[in-house]
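thread: overnight batch results

M.L. [08:02]
morning all. the overnight job finished for the chain we discussed friday. pasting input first so we're all looking at the same thing
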Amino acid sequence: MLGTLLTFFAVGIITLIVVGVALSIVGTVFSIAFGLAGFLLFKVAPILLLGWLVLKFLERRKSVDSLTAADRKWLEGGS
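M.L. [08:03]
and the structure it wrote out:
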């Protein structure tokens, strides 16, 4: 009877240790994932958006007839 109780106690302690380690690993993974997502969303995305807007603005200012001679030759089917 005492041996059974000690076995249950040992299994319970081992289970608590394993569950604690597993939860700490899951928490670390989520922390890294949320940190990376926050970095990309609040640091990288605004810079990319600003660069995209600048390129769109510069593209509109460019005239339609601004093809290079090589582009015209290629479009006309010349080699």
